[in-house]
Amino acid sequence: MIISIGYSCLETFANTTKTVWLIKNHFLLVTQSFRVILRLVNPKIIASFLLIILLASAFQHLGAASRKVPPSPQPTLEADDITFDEKTRVSQLKGNAILRSSSFVLSADKILWNNEKSTAEAKGDAIFTGYDLRVLAKRIVIHFQTGEVMAENLKVGYYPWVLEAEKFDSEARDNQKSSARFRFSEVELFSRNKSQASPSLHMESMTLDGNSSKFIAKSIGVKLGHKTFFKIPNLRGNLNQRALDYNLRAGKMSSVGWYLGAKRTWAVREYSDFTLSALMFPERGIYFSPVLKGNQLPVTEEFYDYSVRMGGIVDYGDKRGMDRLGEAIPRNRGLVDVNFIRRISERWRFAGQMFANTDSELYRDFQSDRFAHDQWRQNFGELSYEGPVYSISTLSQWQQNDYDSLIEQSPNLRIDAGPAPVFGTKFSHSLALEYAILKEKTSHGITGEESRKLDLGYKMQRPFSLPMGLRYVPSLAFRAQSFDLANQGNAKRQLGEWGNDLYIQFQGSYEVHNKIWEIERIDHVSGFSLRHRRRTLMHQSNLSNIPLLDNPFADLNLSPIDLLEEIEADGLKPHEILRLEWTNRLIGSYQGANRELMSFNLFQDLWSNDRYENAKPHSYGEIDLSPAPWLTFSAQSKVDLDTGQSLRNSLTCRIRDGRINDLSVTYFKFDDFGEEWQVFLTRRLDSRKQIAMGVRFDEETSQVPYWMGEIKYRPKGDWTLGIAISQREGTAKEDELAIALNANLFSF
To answer: Where are the domains of the chain?
Structure first.
């Protein structure tokens, strides 16, 4: 017999029970690392620390379970024997009793359905199956109108975890399931491979406020066998304050000797993480490094991205040596590194960076792993405004550490406007204005050359449509620079530029069906342009006095030819050049989504006027290729056409085979800065073993400046073992061999 009934939803019960045993990634302090940390930290603090990790991971899913879900189709009741009591309005199902819907199945020895109160009670070997869950209980009561759920003696499994609890219930307030309160009593969480040596988590009670995501757990302990360790009376927290990764490492650095270290990361807010690491050097002391990072993705007009890194040590080494300034390195050593970007609104942005330390060698001594990727230091603050047709930027860049030579800019004010129409005509004009105070700072903090610069640029252009889809854009530009010099006569320079641009664009759409490459249609946009610029010196005074303070350090990308595109412009010179440009874009469509398959651009300086000193024609090309989500390729090349010298050659190729293989190959050669190949590979051998390896090869010296290898293995049970080895060679201080051993419990 089948009876059709109405109901609201049971998702709350399913997601709530599923959540608690989803505590899986961080239950790992019962390892060899435990012994090391126990000597430094109070065991109760460690236990509290562990429990916050476990509970917060669970409550994250509990909070999601409290959200209101849309109604499902009507369920049905099935049983060997169904009776209905007219007086109580209760249907009684006996023998293979089943409540079935499209989302779940509730079965038991007996089910009572109260039609007036819209409640169902399952008794005797009750089983709830749905939402990727299978819950066993002696008794389950569901209130369909309020969404309240109660279960007794429940047991639920989700590989490889098992959760047992004497009782679970949820209480909805004001008939709003989004404000429900969830309660567990006598909870135990353990692995399905539980043995005498396997730990488990026990709680006397646990309560979660579904609205605020705050939780309270009472009488908590870690059980090993029949004994409970590190028991604490209660614990309070919030699901948004989850703990994250943990690791141990050991190795040797050539400058400071052997070390043993540990690192821990917590999520202190929704978009912020806090990391604390400690490295113990037997010969030098303990280096502590707290890091606070936050990153709110720019999905709205306002976002932020920041990091605050600090480090410090009381260095007891006998041979600390001298810093770059020739001064003795102090015993108390520390550093702070701050980086931030804050978009206040759609128009305003604030960005900055500061790096300060007690001596030049601290970062290289104790954080050489980061030094290898973070050697270019700037200390600056910038506030900018982006209007509809103009932008304003004010910047200050200063020398924070005397050993870092740089050009100070305090301040640098810049205004860019346009291109914008001129009084509603087809003419458009652009304006660039810059004022800067520049000072050269040597590697000993001594001020060298100085200048105050006022730089004004103006450009006007008008497009003309020609037959056959051609477009011609002539332009005139003017730029005036004035330099107020500290120790010699002031200088001025005025330049004019005449420009001619000829454009043509093609586009097409092609039906291409390929499931492997995930393509259904390809759109191609291609364009050719012929650009001519003639720049002449109109007026000058004391040009030889102008110091080249605001000048490019290296020119590895496409060189600008437009007068107003020259940003670092202390070395502006006349020139005449003719450049051919070819641009291509391929856009692929698949199941209504678009992605860029290829971007291919070539730039060739066809001719330059040899009468000008600045006649340096170049050829530049770039390609970004991504024919499938699992394959990407990019390359850039720049050649000096006069000398034939290669100024830049770089390429990167990455191939991903799902979760099995990930291969990355990189080649780069920049001017005279070396020529290197780099290969990194990650391969999952099977469900339990994974390897990773990488090597960097210097083709000019035939040396291997860096290599690494890593193996991870998960034996039967709850353990994950790993070993990683890396070595760096060829630098003054960063030569090192690092070995890391890991033994993690419940790490999946």
So the answer is: 2-241, 674-748
The Cα 72–Cα 393 span in angstroms is 55
- Helix/strand/coil (H/E/C) assignment for every residue in 398-440: CCCCCCCCEEEEEEEEEEEEEEEECCCCCCEEEEEEEEEEEEE
DSSP 110-161: EEEEETTTTEEEEEEEEEEEETTEEEEEEEEEEETTT--EEEEEEEEEETTE
SS (H, E, C) 5-61: CCCCCCHHHHHHHHHHCCCCCCCCCCCHHHHHHHCCCCHHHHHHHHHHHHHHHHHHH
Q: Specify the DSSP element, H or E, that contains 634.
A: strand 631-640
Tokens coding 325: 């300034």
Q: Which residue has the tokens 């009593």?
A: 185
Q: Which residues contact 411 (CB under 8 A, 6 or more apart)?
A: 394, 395, 396, 435, 436, 437
Closest C-alpha to 597, from 587, 606, 589: 587
- Reference 626, options 580, 595, 660, 604; nearest CA is 595
Q: What number is the average pLDDT over the span 619-629?
A: 93
507-516: average pLDDT: 90
Q: Can you tell me the distance from the alpha carbon of 206 to that of 16, in angstroms, rounded to the nearest whole number?
A: 12
* DSSP SS3 for 660: coil
Enumerate residues 6+ apart whose C-beta is below 8 A from 50.
26, 27, 29, 222, 230
For tokens 């505590």, name the residue. 23
3-state SS track over 510-540: EEEEECCCCEEEEEEEEEEEEEEEEEEEEEE
Closest by CA to 531, choosing from 583, 457, 570, 486, is 583
| Cα torsion 29, 31, 37, 38: sign | positive
Instruction: For residues 665 and 677, give the distance between their C-alpha atoms in angstroms, rounded to a whole number.
Output: 8
Read off the pLDDT band of 299 (50, 70, 90): low
How far apart CA 276 and CA 262 sit, in angstroms, is 8
Considering the chain, what percentage of its residues have pLDDT values greater than 90? 38
Q: How far is CA 46 from the centre of its chain?
A: 29
pTM attached to this predicted model: 0.68
> What SS3 class is residue 693?
strand
Cα maximum dimension of the chain: 109
For strand 689-698 and strand 519-541, is the pairing parallel, antiparallel, or unpaired?
A: unpaired
Among 3.10.180.10, 3.30.70.100, 2.60.450.10, 3.90.45.10, name the CATH number for the domain at 2-241: 2.60.450.10
Rounded Cα–Cα distance for residues 595 and 572 (Å)? 40
pLDDT for the residue 193? 66
pLDDT digits (tens, 9 = 90+) for 140-155: 888 777 767 788 998 8
Which has the closest alpha carbon to 117: 144, 82, 78? 144
Separation between Cα atoms, residue 380 and residue 196, nearest integer Å: 59
- The better pLDDT of the pair 304, 663 is held by 663
Distance CA 352, CA 342 (A): 9
Cα 273 to Cα 238: distance, rounded to the nearest angstrom: 15
SS3 for 467?
A: helix
**Is there a cis peptide before residue 627, judged by omega within 30 degrees of 0?**
no
